[in-house]
Amino acid sequence: MKIISLILIIVGVIWIVLIVIAPLTLEPGTVILGEEGKANYVDYPDLWIHLPLFQRIIYGLGDLICHQKTSRSFIINGNQMPVCARDVGLYLGILIALIPLYIFNIYYTIMYKRFVSKLFGSKSSS
Question: Which domain holds residue 23?
Answer without folding.
Answer: 2-120
